[in-house]
TrEMBL record:
Keywords: Signal
Organism: Streptomyces akebiae
Lineage: Bacteria, Bacillati, Actinomycetota, Actinomycetes, Kitasatosporales
Amino acid composition bias (Basic and acidic residues), ranges on this chain: 254-287
Chain segments carrying region Disordered: 34-54, 254-322
Protein name: Lipoprotein
Membrane-spanning intervals of the chain: none
Biased segments, Low complexity type: 43-54, 310-322
Keyword Lipid biosynthesis included in the entry's annotation: no
Signal peptide as annotated in the record: 1-22
Length: 322
């Protein structure tokens, strides 16, 4: 059942946060985070300068592995832009360095690091819950992603509770908890839930943000799903499963095509039984000798060798290679 009051509440809260964000002065030492350019569906991020000559995933292939609206349901549509709560509630300082690293990574959505090949990103808005979902997929260094996932797991345990001081001096309480992802989802995975609560223009508000990171071979996907009025608890896992399924299908197709190029179809002549080939040679030998003798007899009589005899003589010459 749809909840239209969530939409009205969302509009009011976003308006209040937009006013707060208008007063924000950019902090050069803080990551920028989700760009406004992400409002265009299936935009691509530029590859790293150190990308290999033959990346595992190109930008075009990465786009084909992105989530689609059909994967999410009728309540979702292409995003209209970055939600203002990103700057209003996630951009701030903490008094604990390890928790600052976690907050910065979540705010900038920079959990995977620099891509080593093609990458693409898309976003969706949920008008029922007033939530927003962002999905990024690309080629990355496998060892680097695994190290980042381990570090992320450590920070989840370390930063269960901390305080965020926003750019306007407001303080917000933050809670972090792990999000269990299916054990068969990709080759490695890590999920978390961040809840940021506090006073927003005189009203108590709480942002719930899920983050799921999954590695598949040398590729990885990052999904964030958050909103000010709660989120669908099942949407994060279901979206991650749909995205990884699409990515795995793409990689399987890519591997099959690569194997076909390495192992082209063999020449049918090479598939013949060597024993049968030898028997055929033995059968042809007597006729070849007779043809040769006939040609010699013709030459002795002063007659030119017939064309049929010449072709038979050439056929008796064994091939250069079997």
């Amino acid at each position: 059942m749809r909840r239209p009051y969530r939409v009205l509440a969302r509009v009011m809260a976003l308006g209040m946060l937009a006013g707060a964000a208008a007063c924000v002065v950019d902090d050069p030492g803080h990551p920028r985070g989700f760009p406004e350019a992400a409002s265009v569906d299936e935009t691509t991020a530029s590859a790293s300068p150190t990308a290999p000559a033959t990346p595992a995933l190109t930008d075009a292939r990465a786009r084909s592995a992105l989530l689609r609206q059909d994967d999410l349901g009728d309540a979702w549509s292409g995003t209209q832009g970055a939600a203002t709560w990103r700057d209003g509630l996630l951009k701030g300082r903490t008094d604990r360095p390890e928790c600052q690293a976690l907050l910065d990574a979540v705010y900038a959505e920079d959990v995977l690091g620099e891509p080593k090949g093609g990458t693409a990103v898309t976003g969706f808005d949920d008008y029922e819950y007033g939530a927003q979902l962002r999905y990024q997929v690309g080629a990355y260094d496998k060892a680097d992603v695994d190290a980042r996932l381990r570090r992320l797991g450590q920070l989840i345990g370390t930063c269960e509770e901390f305080t965020i001081t926003g750019v306007q001096g407001r303080e917000y309480g933050a809670e972090v908890a792990p999000v269990e992802l299916p054990g068969n989802l990709g080759d490695a995975r890590q999920g978390l839930r961040l809840i940021v609560s506090g006073d927003v223009e005189g009203e108590d508000s709480a942002l719930t943000l899920d983050l799921a990171t999954v590695r598949v071979g040398d590729t990885a996907a990052l999904l964030t799903h958050g909103g000010l009025y709660g989120i669908d608890d099942t949407a994060t896992t279901e979206a991650a499963q749909a995205g990884i399924k699409r990515l795995q299908a793409l990689l399987k197709e890519q591997t099959e095509k690569k194997n076909e190029k390495k192992d082209p179809k063999k020449d049918p002549k090479q598939d013949k039984d060597p024993k049968q080939q030898q028997e055929k040679k033995d059968t042809k030998a007597p006729s070849d000798e007779n043809s040769s003798e006939e040609g010699s007899s013709d030459e002795a009589r002063g007659r030119p060798t017939s064309r049929t005899g010449a072709l038979a003589a050439s056929a008796s010459t064994p091939p250069a290679s079997a």
